[in-house]
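Hey, I'm writing a tutorial for new members on how sequence and structure tokens pair up, and I'd like a real worked example in the thread rather than a made-up one. If someone can provide the structure for the chain below, I'll link this post from the tutorial.
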Amino acid sequence: MKKNFILIMSFILLAFTACNSDDAEPVVNSVAFAATSVNLANESTPIEIKFASPTASAGSLTIIYTETSVANGTDYSTTPAIAANKIIVPFEQNVSSVSFTFKKLKEAIEGEVKNVVFTISSATINSTIAENKTIQVNFNETASLGSALAPELGGSAQANQVFVDLSSGKLTSVVRTSWDLGFYSGSEFRVVLNSSLKMSAKALETTNIDEVQAEDPTMLFSQGTGNPALVDDPTGDLTKTTIAAVSATDSENKVYLINMGNNPAAVGLGAEGAVAGTSRGWKKIRVLKSGNDYKIQYANIDATTHDEVVVSKNSAFNFTFFSLLDKKTVSVEPQKVQWDLNFTSFTNVIPGQTGLTPYLYADYVVNNSKGGAQTYQVLTSAFTYEAFTLANVDNTKFNNDPRNIGSNWRGTSVIGPTGLPVSQFVLRTDRFYVVKDPAGNIYKLKFTGGLSAAGERGYPTFQYAILK
């Protein structure tokens, strides 16, 4: 069973009924579960319920439930205890949340579906029950019904890459400077660069890794200038990596000069530091085959000797990752069917003044196209997020481009008082996304923020729900 933790959900607050008589009308609160599902990772789990505003008085909530292949007292228990087929959950005055405890008494066996669905039935205070009025508590591994998540990118420097598995709600955070090269685990022998760091590569005429090399300034790129042939194709097409396919004939495998890109850097409010850091230097590499694995030779560009290591393929993952600086393989992506989205900086290729040029984006989201995750965008002029259902899904719009979300969920400028663009993060609320995960589950997903409370970039938030 995948681990899953209760993820506190910042649900959309229902609008209070408008009043025409100032203080004459009573204040109507709103109540909802903090998440719509949880996969039990511990014996005891708190089930949180949120109020839109602090409670005006003490009171209680009435929770009803339905069971699937479980029985209260045999497979589970609750605190407060179930009585007369319901749970009465008391709360105090001036609180924003309350919880009851679910205790798992028996595990589910492999392939067995066991769950309890709890529903908020009523409250003793003047309130409305919001959209998230139910939560499904799963004994075994099952697709999450939805939640709200906040990937921790590390603020304006966006020093992390965060992999998201929607079916479990799990977030996997990796320091983006922790790896440099990815070695494909499929049948092809392909090597990719870490596109989150502005890395580039250039084939040399030599096959001798021990020849001294020099830095090549033509390999550098800034925002809108540079050679797109020296970066990997951003569509993820492995036939278009800047490092050629590794040949079984050693003499055909050239030495590559590697520009290691830039480190992250923290910057001021409203700006992003993905491209602002210091240079990570230069390396030279040569990649050979070693049976069904890779052999990489690598060194500093002024070295006359080199290191050599075999990098093994692992079919459970899209790639095996290697750090040239730390001289070792490192763990980066989860297994290829256990993540859907990656929040990251990303080197795209866009039209420039002189043709296509590389461009490093912050606040970027790619889907796991190699693992089978697909996405497409929906404008709210066609459907609202709330009204969108499984029947509205257009399967013809799914494709294998990992950039379908990309940077489209946010803007970076507004028109200032002088009529000229002014740098500013803008959350685009006129769109949401449909995501199909590797298991075939389909979700709707919308972004709810991208800044900290202080206005610093690098704090994305989103909510999603499974479509059934």
